[in-house]
Amino acid sequence: MNGATSLVKSLESAGVDVMFGIPGGAILPAYDPIFDSTIRHILVRHEQGAGHAATGYAQVTGRVGVCIATSGPGATNLVTPLADAAMDSVPLVAITGQVPSAAIGTDAFQEADIRGITMPFTKHNYLITNPDDIPRAIAEAFHIANSGRPGPVLVDIAKDALQKETNFVWPTSINLPGYHPQITPDNGAIADAAALITQSLKPVFYVGGGVIKANASRELLQLAELLGAPVVTTLMARGAFPDSHTLHLGMPGMHGTVAAVTALQKADLLITLGARFDDRVTGKLSTFATNAKIIHADIDPAEIGKNRFADVPIVGDVRETISALIPALKKALEKNRPDLTPWLRQMYSLRSTYPLGYDAPSDGSVSPQYVIERLGKIAGPDAIYVAGVGQHQMWASQFVSYEKPRTWLNSGGLGTMGYSVPAAMGAKVGAPDTTVWAIDGDGCFQMTNQELVTCALNNIPIKVAIINNESLGMVRQWQTLFYEGRYSNTNLESKRVPNFPMLAEAMGCIGLSCERPEDVDKTIEKAMSINDQPVVVDFRVFRDAMVWPMVAAGTSNDDIMVARELAPDWDSQEL
Amino acid sequence: MSKHTLSVLVENSPGVLARVSGLFSRRGYNIDSLAVGPTENPLISRMTIVINVEGHPLEQVVRQLDKLVNVIHIAEVIDSKSVQAELLMVKISATPKNRFDVEAVVETYEAKIVDEDATSITIEATGDTAKIADLLSALERFGIRELVQSGLIALERGSVTLSERTLSTSGIPIANGVQADYQN
Q1: ∠ CA B71-B75-B79 to the nearest 5 degrees?
Q2: What residues of chain B lie within 8 A of the CB of A178, using their CB?
Q3: Which of A130, A133, A179 is the best residue to mutate to test the B interface, defined by the most B CB atoms within 10 Å of its own CB?
Q4: Which of A489, A382, A380, A494 is nearest to A431 (CA)?
Q5: Is the Cβ pair A178, B69 closer than 8 Å?
Q6: Is A474 a catalytic residue?
Q7: Of A243, A231, A225, whose CA–CA distance to A407 is shortest?
Q8: Which of A57, A548, B106, B155 could bridge across to A65 with cysteines, CB 3.0–4.6 Å?
Q9: Which stretches of chain A score pLDDT less than 70?
Q10: Is the preceding omega at residue A355 within 30 degrees of 0, hence cis?
């Protein structure tokens, strides 16, 4: 057989059931055996769509997402989704064709050094010029992508390696002398953590996306209830712990709840599980949680101490860590159970005093928060919600109640506008029986909506709610707050150009629109009733709505504002 | 300023130097020198990296470096427990008048004259960083016309070798090995 057949057999052996891609010259030999393969290949309209779709698929299923593209521009179009996946620790394998090995380095047609380009944000990558190396590279790529801290791996294969004869031998073991992720946590660290927890009167569980990746939600629930301490879930961890749970204070960070932000600030101990002290969570780092000791559990040792010193570092899989911590803590609490009641009372008081909320627009138009809130209520906690980036993303993280892991997808680390539609497509492919709502902005939607064609033609009936404020809303919000309302280049107002429902119809979707508050529910219900075609709803919403609370970039979490020029009334709180 | 010398065993595979140097550059770590070459094992190359870790704890640098799949083992080289050398070649202006003085300096530093003509002398020297710096300042008065210097290389004193230690700990999570092998 040739290298191309060996590649496809390798992907089959790795357990791939679906991949997203577009053929082209250098990858063309691979598309011949793909034609006969059991693997479902979904022909996207842009390689960026393939990459985000693979991400959506991976986020929903926990399996490795696979995308495939040709050399040069095909490969460079994958750069954004690869960077996105690296920031959010998503297991991806990207296959790219490369010009023939003899032409590498000659600026050949459609040549790009994609291995060099992607070094900074792939977990590892390969350039294969010998067809005999293909099965080993693919096996290693899947192993690396989905073990330890997950991440993207790129395998670039020269065209002649795809064409040459080879033997397919699937490796029986993987030998990577420099790659040994530590899965099992150190017993001593677990004991130290348990001891520190029993000394704390103001502990908080600071829960990050690692808990979802490690499928540790059930264990987290046990641990949280065992200690009875408040829980905050970061943007990447929404759904890791039920929003309806009493102990849940919501999301911390720049647009977090007052209770969640303050809990971290005032805590004497952060029990950090699969989170990374991102600047969007900590605010000004030197003023972050200044009185707190830190337990930091993460599978990536380089995250420990990167932004914040850890008093008790725990390297390992966070599910194993929590599972080990539960019995250790149980034992420690038998001897000494601190009274957390005053702490919980303070936090619950903050939560009830400063709930998330919004004002109805003064002009009678539709409130974007209301649309998202109703969408969450009507579609319910079993649906999957996939946001783009900006105001609508923050509102979707705030006003939809998440009860289960892997029901909230977004681009947290890289903040990739255009993520929503293709990621929702991948999510729907991974969970075909689940309702998938893309909650997108009108700015984001115009970056990647071409994948609705892919959805329409491949029976991938996603639903898209465009939160259309005719603006690049989040940037406009910053211009309102920090640039004296000088709205430089954030105005997408365009006499309804494009006409989103018509655009949707042109792409084989059902297009709906909603402009009045009283129509919101019935429009959502109409969209929910259509399950054989993608649906796009153009919700035309109030333009000047803002995301609150807010900790302005670079400032301290102590300076959180609940509305414009309105800080919480700290004097009335006993903290 | 806090300088550390790291010995890094890496897979001898294409692109590994780019991975290491790219990591240092994108994370803002300053390299004073980097020397890379083959080892007794053809599958493994060894890098000796002198790093200035002002602003970044060494631990963080090592952990980021260790995330590279091609990096097999990282150990800090402690000055007092190692032999270290860099190679210097320097071309100085020389006249019949000062030739004796040059030769005296060369002799003092156990350097050698590897090339000469009517107006110049090329000197080669090896030694640790301090010795090479001293030699250069001694040669300055003659007029340094051109110089080239290698990065530092280093080996631990005694019979233990880094490769043996790596082989003996293979299968043990690398993070443990690393923790045992460097200090801040």
Answers
A1: 145
A2: 10-11, 66, 68-73, 174
A3: A179
A4: A382
A5: yes
A6: yes
A7: A243
A8: A57
A9: 495
A10: no
How far is the first Cα of chain A from the last one, in angstroms, to the nearest whole number? 71
Token duo for residue A392: 């609508």
CA distances from A386 to A80, A95, A211, A542, B104 (A): 17, 25, 19, 21, 76
Identify the closest residue of chain A to B72 by CA–CA distance.
A178
Taking the C-alpha atoms of residue A47 and residue B34, their distance in angstroms, rounded to an integer, is 38
pLDDT at B139: 95
Residues of A at the B interface (Cβ-Cβ below 8 Å)? 115-116, 119-120, 123-124, 127, 144, 176-182, 300-302, 304-306, 315
In this predicted structure, what is the pLDDT of residue B184? 32
Name the DSSP letter for residue A558. Answer: G
Question: B144: how many CB neighbours lie within 10 A of its CB?
Answer: 13
Of A127, A302, A305, the CB nearest to B67: A302
Catalytic residue among A9, A123, A159, A428: A159
The number of beta carbons lying within 10 Å of the beta carbon of residue A327 is: 12
The residues near A497 (Cβ < 8 Å, ≥ 6 apart) are none
* pLDDT at residue B163 greater than cutoff 90: no
CB contact under 8 A, A315 and B18: no
State yes or no: is A110 an active-site residue: yes
Q: How far apart are CA A437 and CA A443, in angstroms?
A: 17
Tell me if A8 sits within 8 A of A38, measured CB to CB: no
* Cβ contact, residue pair B174, A178, below 8 Å: yes
> A537: which strand partners?
A465, A512
Q: In sequence order, what DSSP letters do the residues of A403-420 get, joined into one string?
A: -STTSEE---SS--TT-H
Taking a C-beta distance cutoff of 8 angstroms, is the pair A509, A456 a contact? Answer: yes
Q: Is A475 exposed, middle or buried (0-12, 13-18, 19+ CB in 10 A)?
A: middle
**What is the phi/psi pair of residue B34, to 5°?**
-140, 125
Q: What pLDDT is recorded for position B177? A: 36
Q: Which residue is associated with the tokens 């010029």?
A: A129
Nearest to A350 by CA among A221, A223, A250, A236: A250
Is the pLDDT at B175 greater than 50? The verdict is no
A369 is catalytic: no
Question: What pLDDT, on a 0 to 100 scale, did the predictor assign at position B166?
Answer: 65
Confidence of residue B54 (pLDDT cuts 50, 70, 90): confident
* Residue B173 to residue A180, Cβ atoms within 8 A: yes
Residue type, A354: Y
**pLDDT surpassing 80 at residue B167:** no
ipTM reported for the complex surpasses 0.90: yes
Q: Distance between CA A456 and CA A209 in Å, rounded? A: 31
Nearest to B62 by CA among B29, B16, B104, B18: B29
Compute the distance between CA of residue A109 and CA of residue A131 in angstroms, rounded to an integer.
22
- What value does the mean pLDDT take over residues B25-48? 93
What pLDDT does B169 receive?
Answer: 44
Chain A hits for B182, CB-CB cut-off 8 Å, are none
pTM of the model: 0.95
CA angle A108, A158, A448 (to 5 degrees): 80
B31, two tokens: 């390299």
Tell me the HSE value of A396 on the side-chain side, using a 13 A CA sphere: 30
> Exposed, middle or buried: residue B125 (CB in 10 Å: 0-12, 13-18, 19+)?
buried
CB contacts of B73 in chain A (<8 Å) are 178
For residue B32, which amino acid is it?
D
Flag if A180 and B174 touch (Cβ within 8 Å): yes
Q: Measured at the alpha carbon of residue A74, what is the angle toward residues A71 and A77, in degrees to the nearest 5?
A: 130
